[in-house]
Amino acid sequence: MSNGFDDIPFFDEEEPAPRKPAQAPATSTAASGPAPGGLGIAARAMAARDQTRAPDYLSGLNPEQRDAVETVDGPLLVLAGAGTGKTRVLTTRIAHILATGRAFPSQLLAVTFTNKAAREMKERIGLLVGGAVEGMPWLGTFHSIGVKILRRHAELVGLRSDFTILDTDDVVRLIKQLIQAEGIDDKRWPAKQFAQMIDGWKNKGLDPSQIPEGDARAFANGKGRELYAAYQNRLKTLNACDFGDLLLHPIRMFRANPDVLKEYHQKFKYILVDEYQDTNTAQYMWLRLLAQRPPGVPQNVCCVGDDDQSIYGWRGAEVDNILRFEKDFPGAKVIKLERNYRSTEHILGAAGHLIAHNEGRLGKTLFTDRVNPDDEKVVVHAAWDSEEEARAVGEEIERLQRGDSDGKKHALNDMAILVRASFQMREFEDRFVTLGLNYRVIGGPRFYERLEVRDAMAYFRLVCQPADDLAFERIVNTPKRGLGDTTIRTLHDYARARDVPMLAAAADLIETDEIKPKARKALFDVIQHFRRWSELLETTPHIELAEQILEESGYTDMWKNDKSAEAPGRLENLKELIRSMEAFESLRGFLEHVSLVMDAEQNADMDAVSIMTLHSAKGLEFDTVFLPGWEEGLFPHQRALDEGGRSGLEEERRLAYVGITRAKRRCHIWFVSNRRIHGLWQSTMPSRFLDELPVTHVEVAESEQSYGGYGRGGYGQSRFDKADPFANNYSTPGWKRAQANKSDATRDNWGTRSGHAVERIGYGESGPKAKTIDGELVAKSTTSEPSKFTVGDRVFHIKFGNGNIASIEGNKLTINFDRAGEKRVLDGFVERV
DNA sequence: AAGCCTTAGTTTTTT
DNA sequence: ACTAAGGCTT
Fold it and tell me: Where is the composition biased (Low complexity) (predicted)?
């Protein structure tokens, strides 16, 4: 569990979460079996209760929190703003339900989105109640609980209970096969895209028969519905599920089997949902099925969320679920948590003013009364380009580390850089490597998604589940065994014709002469190996077996013989994979875990600055937060605006809100005038979100360096004394260029900004001379001067050779090259011949 | 089966 | 501009 954040206390300067009560039994009596288990916890919790006064665990709560904990009967929506003690309320509420004897641990259903959140909740309940929480079998993610339900009733939806869970990669490969089998051009209709469509439908809870006609037509000349149905059939044959099915199958099963649903109704006395604003339609349907009760019986559902932190609309989350909670659950009580324990008044003020620009919200205002005159305002900085941005952030970090500003030395662990898009990270990494500053990147490619780990897992899967064709196809020729396309196709056809797994097909076919002798020998060896491994499965310790599989299959040797730079790292990852199996009892148990828990631990020992996207920062907090890249087009992101319209913009704004509210003490926002996007230098405009920050809580940093045109020439006072605090930035070369571009076709990405009137102050002309790089950049991307080329000119390009200019858009030329065909290039890269 | 060349994509991410 | 992946050639 340690990625460095788990030990950061949720409350700053508050008393820690209540400790194990003195009268709690010292020894654990946790039940060993599953249901009806968990009496150990209940007993401890009951013992912890003090009949004469309010129990200890309630004492540290504010009135609203306490209300949310004690309102146990009937539907309850807790609107918990950032840093208001959400997790504390949830965990205390659970402890309270247990302590008052209202339910056994096994009668609580508590759902989270991520494994991390589930883990954290378990730990914290353990702290409250004392001891581990083995007795809460129904605390987990939507998906892990879905699997649990589904394994019990798999046969009701046409699966066997040992079904496999496919991840995205498997799904895409499977769909690709289906597309090809239909004779559809898989270049024109990419499997990946269709996988995303299916995912979208499943998020909405739609079967093939239910998808909108338009959607069905949109793919592969109207074959969308057919393909989706074919995909579901194929999954059934494979005895497999995708992630969406882990929710949809239980929904189907409950609808078709009211008696089963009733069992669960009786079982779950209290239901809790975390991060309710992130639920999608399918999750919502699932929840409603489980939460519904006959008239007169209270629906004990408690959903906790924050509409202002809903940032996953693009993957199917429906903020509406939280906005209409009261309609869905009549008689619901709504409690708002607005007292913030995390941030300074300036940070809260800035965030609150920004988010107030959103229309579709329930409306909360965070406040704190711990006001300190030394609290720093949110600082907005300008930089010339992203390189300077990274340099300046690096300097600020070193300053804090040394303790220059306030005499306190700040740990790198307390600082984070939160970016909108991951490509922004690189510049910071480069800079920090140069500076020798420790950093850690959160998110990004994950351990279990690495090629070598997935290969190894495919071997294990096939040993446990010989019918796993996807695993078979993945590794049958890895390492190379001379089993090429032809052989695989033969196997595939045979298997499909007889409806048997490919491994079985292979066993059949090596008896015949349909396969060339060489391939037959190779296949024979593979089959022998798997037979033996399967036999060892029951007798050999799983770690030993896993090592043996990787050795005997030649997989480790393959990487040992590989001379590429990555090979050693891959071998190291394989060792790590084996090591991580130690925590499990069997190979099967391990596989199940991995399919549901895709995250791996990070080392938290080192003191390091965290770099991550705004999305992965949700739920975390840091003393100092740096928010670079506040420019139109990047943040708010152009695509969010194009595809999401106004609601897209509002989601971006929520993202900005999430970013600011991660900060406890210091928040530094940056924007640059020039950024390279897709390899081209673009002039950028400051983000509209900057204009939405309140003057009283924000200051604009004086220009720290090279980037001249800002803050010099007698501007000592706050930029906010002016009508437009950022006016000066609009006099920079970047801004002028943006203006010039406005009347030009090159504005395509950037010129669509509206409703943002600014007064320009003619300052740049007489201002300090810009750096040399300025001249270069202007030369490359300015459009204020007419192009030195005209349509029809014959030009030479170093890569594409000779050609004629077909059209000119600012500094971008469209050229018909004699050999390379039509290309768009910058005018700086060609010369007249 | 390895290596080269062309082509497409380049916001955010969980399970 | 860069990268990664897929297709094609040798």
Answer: 21-34
Comparing C-alpha atoms, which of A298, A342, A302, A300 is closest to residue A322? A302
User: With a cut of 70, which residues of chain A have pLDDT below it?
Assistant: 1-54, 131-134, 600-603, 703-788, 797-801, 807-815, 817-831, 833
CATH class of A449-600: mainly alpha
Instruction: Give me the count of residues in chain A.
Output: 833
Q: Which residue has the tokens 């809790």?
A: A272
Query: Which residue among A44, A49, A66, A86 is the active-site one?
Result: A86
Q: Which residues contact A117 (CB under 8 A, 6 or more apart)?
A: A141, A274, A275, A619
Output the six-digit token pair for A529. Answer: 């190996």
Asked if residues A589 and A630 have their Cβ atoms less than 8 Å apart, the reply is: no
Convert the pLDDT of each residue in A545-578 to its tens digit: 999 999 999 999 888 887 777 788 888 888 988 9
Residue A508 neighbours by CB distance under 10 Å: 14
Based on the residue annotation, tell me whether A86 is a catalytic residue of this protein: yes
The burial class, CB within 10 Å (0-12 / 13-18 / 19+), for A344 is: buried
DSSP state of A186: T
Q: Which option is the CATH number for A164-238: 1.10.10.160, 2.40.50.1020, 3.30.70.20, 3.50.50.60? A: 1.10.10.160
CA pair distance A490, A341, nearest whole angstrom: 65
Catalytic entry in A66, A361, A662, A666: A662
Q: What is the rounded CA–CA span in Å between residue A168 and residue A482?
A: 28
Cis-peptide, bond into residue A190, ω within 30° of zero = no
Classify domain A55-147+245-339 at the CATH topology level: Rossmann fold (3.40.50)
Q: Is A86 annotated as a binding residue?
A: yes
Q: What DSSP line would sit under A695-757, residue for residue?
A: GGGEEEPPP-SS--SSS-SS--S-GGGSSSTTGGGGGSHHHHHHHHHHTSGGGGGTTT--S--
Active site residue A274: yes
- In angstroms, how far is B2 C1' from A612 CA? 38
Nearest in space to A309 (alpha carbons), one of A364, A346, A350, A347:
A364
Single out the residue of A132, A138, A106 nearest to residue A39, CA to CA: A106
Residues 6+ apart with CB under 8 A from A570: A450, A451, A452, A559, A562
pLDDT digits (tens, 9 = 90+) for A159-201: 999 999 998 888 998 998 888 888 888 888 889 999 999 999 9
Q: Are the C-beta atoms of A86 and A272 separated by less than 8 Å?
A: no
Give per-residue pLDDT as tens, A48-82.
544 445 678 888 899 999 999 999 999 999 999 99
- Asked if residue A188 keeps its beta carbon closer than 7 A to nucleic acid strand C, the reply is no
Residue A443 CA to nucleotide C8 C1', Å? 36
Query: Is there a common fold for A55-147+245-339 and A350-438+608-700?
Result: yes
- The two tokens of residue A515 are 């396969």
CB-contacted nucleotides of strand C (7 Å): 1-2, 6-7
Annotated active-site residue A309? The verdict is yes
Candidates A722, A629, A622; CA nearest to A673 is A629
Nearest 5°: the CA angle A124, A126, A128 is: 75
**Can you list the alpha helix ranges (DSSP code H) found in A373-499?**
386-402, 423-435, 451-464, 469-475, 485-498
Residue nearest to nucleotide B8 (CA to C1'): A187
Q: Which residue is nearest to nucleotide B11 (CA to C1')?
A: A421
A782 is catalytic: no
* Rounded distance between C-alpha atoms, residue A336 and residue A703, angstroms: 41
Q: What is the CA radius of gyration of chain A?
A: 30
Tell me what the pLDDT averaged over chain A comes to. 80
In the CATH scheme, what is the homologous superfamily, with its name and number, of domain A350-438+608-700? P-loop containing nucleotide triphosphate hydrolases (3.40.50.300)
Domain edges within chain A: 55-147+245-339, 164-238, 350-438+608-700, 449-600, 793-832
- For residue A558, the model assigns a pLDDT of 87
